[in-house]
Amino acid sequence: MIPSQTVPKSSFRLGLSVAAVLIALSLPLLLPLFQVTLLTNILIFSIVVTGLVLLTGILGLTSFGQAAFMGVGAYTTAVLTAQMGWNPWLSLPVSLLVTGLIAWFLGLLTLRMQGHYLPLATIAWGISLFYVFGNTPALGGFTGLTDIPPISVFGLELTSPRNFAYLALICLGLVALGAQFLLSSRTGRAMRALRGGPLVAEAFGVSAFGLRVQVFILAALMAALAGWLYAHSQRFVNPTPFGLQAGIEYLFMAVVGGSQHVWGGVMGAGLITQIREQLRDILPGLLGQQGNFEVIVFGALVILVLQFARQGLWPLLERLLPQEGIRILPQREKLSQRARPAPGTPLLSVQHAVKQFGGLRAVGDVSFDLQAGEILGLIGPNGAGKSTMFNLITGVNPATSGQISFMGQDISRRSAGQIHRLGLSRTFQHVHLLPDLTLLENTMMGGYARGRAGIVRSLLHLERGEEAALQHEALRQLERVGLGAQAFTLAGNLALGQQRVLEIARALVADPTLLLLDEPAAGLRYGEKAELVALLRKLREEGITILLVEHDMDLVMGLVDRLVVMNYGEKLAEGSPQQVRDNADVREAYLGVDMEEEGAA
Amino acid sequence: MQIFDPTIFPILAADGLTNGAVYALLALALVLVFAVTRVIFIPQGEFVVFGTLTLATLQLGRTPGTLWLVLALLGIAALMEAFSLARNGQARRGLVTVGVAALLGVGTWAVTDWLAPLKAPLWVQVILTLGLVAPLGPLLYRVVYQPLQNATVLVLLIASVALHLVLTGLALVFFGPEGSRTPAFFEGNLTLGQVTLSWQSLLVIVASAALMLGLYLFFERTMPGKALRATAVNRLGARLVGISPSSAGMLTFTLAALIGALGGVLIGPSVAVTYDSGFLIGLKGFVGAIIGGLVSYPLAAAGAILVGLIESFASFSLSAWKEVIVFTLILPVLLWRSLTTRHIPEDEE
């Protein structure tokens, strides 16, 4: 059942990784001392940028305030160790806690809003914090705090840059590994899905706001860890490295390196830091005056990268490497399955639903019922209110009045995610897939609500059992809809018809009781339509109830058990396809003529 | 509190109002640019800096570095334009573009080089300043933003921040690290009962108000103004009725640069402007614009004036903390916005 290309040979890639680790481990010993200090800085910056990759590259939220979070971590440990005599290892959790709380508070304020308010708020936050550091005498003002004790490991004080580089290396290694684990998990898929907007993610049970806050805090914690390292490697802190300028540079590192890839971030950190060092030597001589002119080059570099390689430089490099395949994990546990309601039991009931948009009554007093085991078609001319009805049922928009109940529960005021967890799964009129991910990963997204592993377990890779179960469930559903052979191709490579079928597979992974399909045949060719009909019939036989919004009359008439016809926001007719076909009102709504003139259709 | 002392309060209020008027101009420019092009235009404050410092350089009888920036951008923009024309098989038009750009460049260079050492009267220098800074707007749009026309708001924002750094760095190269002031247009004070207002402050307020009125008329009464408004409401729709997003963008950026340069000329006599002042000045306009939700012009202007007043009172009683106070103000505003804006789960973009 599992296609043969499950485990692509990536031994070359593995070899490269091992070589990279070995080189990284030997660099602190081999490089001259000045270069080792630079290397340590690059490693510390890379930790900050890794957080930004998760936040900006994957989740699509931009922050210029990472340097400020780093500053909170650094100043917290500086005060606790230099002024109060704490052990650095004890101040680390406090640094993380303080930063996490601030990030949580800022996140609550800003993450509900459209994307561009967050970066503006982080700019304001970055500037404010810089002045707070600089104007607080207890924090040493603009001169900063000195005499920060070194970190000691098993009695060895890390005072030499070479020793310290290893600590930074280990920290970066752990952070990068955690980030990679997170990206290949259920939470990581939800993050990617959220990037394009909350619609899809929320339809599969992701709490968009909650996840954004979590990732924002995670990125801040990474910055705080970097700040802790930085304070103990420099042994003094002052406000400058935590100002807005630094925050901007971290974002630049992510953009130039490749903000969607952990290693892109590391590459960007190395590149920008090295370029800065070089330019600081060259530019003042060239321009005949002192000043930080390297920002001119950085700015121009970022604009060029955005114009010519918007994904950053890492993807250009990665293209030269063999592709990394997805490893199919052995299945040990099974996902819990929902009990199927007996055919004929009432499943969904819409009672006097009304949706008012200002003065426009998009849906006016519509009622219908849906029993388990049937396919109900919702049809009507353009502008009849079908899509609005669909949004009311799926919880995208709440109804103005009336009641909608599903599985015996009132869902009129529930969120999309809550309704989904009751057993309702949907597809979208405009295909919403992640084109850069494989069919398998796209399909697994549908099983989000069946998994439980949160961000912490994902970071630590403790959710592999659940991940394996999701993988196998996704493969099963791909097989079920006939896309099993292409499980490892990228979703963007599929034809539109197949993409629609893939959306059905994704909806099926959620183990739905009720499947809502929003115009599944739109844009499909004749043969594809026939396959779709066959698939939907098969699903009905397997006990899945389907509500279908569709324009294609031939397809609907040959498939559904019952039809509800809407026109101008009201229910026009209801009944079997034959009854609807014979209904005079329906004919008039669709064809706009009297029966007599029309003749035999 | 000392700030409510009847001898101090009017001074602080007048000061706040003067700066607030300039912030309000910037806030309007920012709202305009965002509405039409979706660019969050962080470098708006740099136009102010270039305005003040170009004028200050002309005062010294030297050629401002702004000229070299204009010429370089003109060259790059002309080549980009010619290249894209040539790719569409219109090589002749491409050559014409380069030729016209060369003529324009030589003309600008000749005029500036001739006028700069003459130490012409102040109003001539102001016109020359505006003539040098305003073209930066459309040129930067062509070179930086037009290739990114279809990018997301966040990509455009990152480009804006990058451009801000480039302009700040160039300002340091052109004008050096020292702050400059420009001479006041009018000397003396106007006394109205208890309140003493310098003529200069009055000029700033009146000129800002006049400019706002001018913008209002432009958007309400003229065809280009209406075209910009149409683009702001619906980019695709505007395109379908024949409004090119590129020319709308160019026009918007011209206005933004002109407003910025005017702001710089107006603020120059009262504030010592350095090469890196632009960011904070622009950001204060931003706080105002955000109070207006980046959509409402009157709210943005009112917000910016509020920022000017808060800054003025804060700088008197807690001068070291004035930036913190101004920028922390943004948080309650954002909270209020996030509670009142309804969350719409539509596709973003």
Short précis:
The complex is a heterodimer of chains A (601) and B (349). Chain A has 601 residues and is α/β, with parallel strands linked by helices.
User: How many structural domains does the protein architecture of chain A include?
Assistant: 3
Taking the sheet with the most strands of chain B, its summary is: 2 strands, antiparallel
Number of helices of chain B: 15
Low-confidence stretches of chain A: 1-8
Structural class of chain A: alpha/beta
Spatial gap, N to C terminus of chain B: 48 Å
- List SSEs of chain B in N-to-C order: HHHHHHHEEHHHHHHHH
Shape of chain A: elongated
Name the chain pair whose interface involves the most residues: A-B, 52 and 50 residues
Q: What's the overall geometry of chain B?
A: globular
Kindly describe this structure.
The complex is a heterodimer of chains A (601) and B (349). In chain A, the strands form 3 sheets. Chain A has a 6-stranded mixed sheet, sandwiched between helices. The longest helix of chain A is centred in the middle third of the chain and has 27 residues. Chain A is built from 24 helices and 12 strands. Helix content of chain A is 55%, strand content 11%. Chain A has 3 domains: 210 residues, no CATH class; 144 residues, 3-Layer(aba) Sandwich (Rossmann fold), CATH 3.40.50.300; 80 residues, no CATH class. By secondary structure, chain A is α/β, with parallel strands linked by helices. In chain A, helix 2 packs across helix 11, helix 4 packs antiparallel against helix 9 and helix 10 packs parallel to helix 12. In chain A, strand 1 and strand 2 form a beta hairpin. The termini of chain B are far apart. In chain B, strand 1 and strand 2 form a beta hairpin. Chain B has 349 residues and is mainly alpha-helical. The radius of gyration of chain B is 21 Å and the shape is globular. Chain B has a two-stranded antiparallel sheet. Chain B has a domain of 236 residues. The C terminus of chain B is likely disordered. Chains A and B meet through helix 4, helix 5, helix 8, helix 10 and helix 12 of A and helix 7, helix 12, helix 14 and helix 15 of B.
